[in-house]
Amino acid sequence: MTLAAFGYANHSATDTLKPFHFERREPRENDVAIDILYGGICHSDIHSARNEWGGTHYPCVPGHEIVGRVSAVGSSVTNYKVGDLVGVGCFVDSCHHCKPCQDGLEQYCENGFTASYNSEDKIGGTPHKFTMGGYSDKITVDEHFVLRIPENLDPAAAAPLLCAGITTYSPLKHWKVGPGQKVGIVGLGGLGHMGVKLAHALGAHVVMITTSPEKGADARKLGADDVLLSKDAAAMKAAKSSFDFLLNTIPVGHDIDPYMELLKLDATMVIVGAVEPLKHVNGAPFIFKRRHMAGSLVGGIAETQEMLDFCGKHNITCDIEKINIQDVNEAYDRTVKGDVKYRFVIDMASLKKEKYYANH
Description:
- By secondary structure, the protein is of the alpha/beta class.
- It has 2 domains: 2-163 and 317-359, Medium-chain alcohol dehydrogenases, catalytic domain (Quinone Oxidoreductase, Chain A, domain 1, Alpha-Beta Complex), CATH 3.90.180; 164-295, Rossmann fold, CATH 3.40.50.720.
- The protein is built from 11 helices and 17 strands.
- Strands 3, 4, 5, 8, 9, 16 and 17 form a 7-stranded mixed sheet that branches.
- Helix 4 (164-174) packs across helix 10 (301-314).
- The two termini are 15 Å apart.
- The mean pLDDT is 96.
């Protein structure tokens, strides 16, 4: 038996997203079935749907920023009950037995985590070989990979926390960002605006590093204490060797040398945005100040829950623009142009407006 599902998918790299009927597995004993309320649009959804990274399997139902209500639970589920507000992030399975998995770092599973969409479905239970994501009305997920959303948060604005939130929270926590530190957030977009909010809530002195004075003004509203314009050579020179930590959210390859020069002795810049080659890396800024450059990928399940609880305590959500699913293709184009502050979120109630919905 399977559960009939309805969502939006594309069937080739050049195809737009369209209504799509597919199937979810019936809940097993450890599964949670979720009626999806909201789904965030991450830029990686666009890269995947358009096969810009290669390896996309079609039909592709994107979406890994998922918030909904529990509709059913398996017989062995103990942490959730029908009606609970829950979330699902970037992955829905991992091997469970490698050291990273045992350490709660499922995002670094040595055997490869199962992404929420476009990954080989190792659990099965449907005719689909690959996982289907959150641009849909329902999903079935192993209890271990389900997260509790604080009820005091706007569920739509909480959806991007499952990717943009944890992508920025994890490195801030790992490198122990806190009071007394000067922290730079490089780039103000879906990731950068969450970096500003979270670093501010952690007690750091937050500096927005941007090419745009307009974005600098926005960053102050989000909690930045200062703004550093990276195109201002004099300002960049004056800021050399003054930062304890940099979170670099620029989504494309770029010259990192000007940013590395900003770090103090032994300080670190973490790359979370550019999943592609960096254009230029000079060894000198590393060598002469023993600086570090590192990367970070979302967070494990326990840390993601910690992040959600932290956001619940501090009333932190993403700044969003809510859309109907019928407008998803336009939202993709606007995201590519940077025309959103700062994340689109799909209201899945709009799926019921589709003439195809009644047939599912």
